[in-house]
Amino acid sequence: MKIRKIIVLLLIFIPVTKSYCQKTEKSGFGLRYTLSYDFEVKRDYNFRIIHHIPALSYRLNSHDFYLGPQYSYVFQPTSTSNKIYENNAFGVNFGYRYYSKELINNLQIFGQFNFSVFRTKFKEYQHGLPLEETRSEFIIENTVTIGMDYNLMNRLNLFAGLGIGSYNKFFLMIDKFNLSSYVGIKYEL
Questions:
Q1: Which of 62, 74, 134, 135 has an alpha carbon 20 to 30 Å from 9's alpha carbon atom?
Q2: The predicted structure's pLDDT at residue 20
Q3: Is 57 among the domain residues?
Q4: Considering the domain boundaries, does residue 4 fall inside one?
């Protein structure tokens, strides 16, 4: 029911932004840093993760593509199971962002598809031999978000957003649902 309300709100809001907003023409490279937090929705169902993401971006008018390395801090799931995760993980982050026209001076709304690919290591305990085994797995997190971008100065932007996603390898297959929030800063070169 909540998702229907959000979709209806977006369907009403998008045409309004197209008719009352200023058009912005920007293109070029930029550097950005994003700090992201994934919420644990259900115990023993997904992860709580903090991502640190420096990235290189390229903006062409309303379209923005970005790519960069990421460091992820993985919290141990609340319900301790037979898997004990290492906290540190490294990977790559890439995505696409679409900007609306300016709502008011220096403020834009954007929609974003974000992908994080990283490898986690964990120790798995069992009753038989071997009692402990170290394993690793690749996690592919994909999220769709909506956010706001505020231009502080000529080339310096602050942004923040919220989104939903999953840890399935296919785009937005909701088997391990997660909520994501992020803040960041971008410098346009």
A1: 62
A2: 45
A3: yes
A4: no
Contact, 157 vs 150, CB < 8 A? yes
Planar angle of CA 39, 135, 166, nearest 5 degrees:
30
The answer as to whether 13 is a domain residue is: no
3-state secondary structure of 55: strand
Please tell me which residue, 40 or 141, carries the higher pLDDT value.
141
Q: Residue 24 and residue 22: Cα distance in Å, rounded? A: 6
Max CA distance (Å), the chain: 68
Q: What is the pTM of this model?
A: 0.78
Average pLDDT of the chain is 82
Element (H, E) at 17: helix 2-20
What is the per-residue pLDDT for 81?
A: 66
Does a structural domain hold residue 9? no
Asked if residue 56 lies in contact with residue 29, where contact means CB atoms within 8 angstroms, the answer is yes
Q: Is 116 helix (H, G, I), strand (E, B) or coil?
A: strand
Place of tokens 């937005």: 172
pLDDT at 75 over 60: yes
The 3-state DSSP class for residue 178 equals: strand
Question: What's the pLDDT at 19?
Answer: 45
Contact (CB, 8 A) for 122 and 88: no
Q: What is the CATH number of the domain that holds 91?
A: 2.40.160.20
Q: How many CB atoms lie within 10 A of CB 8?
A: 10
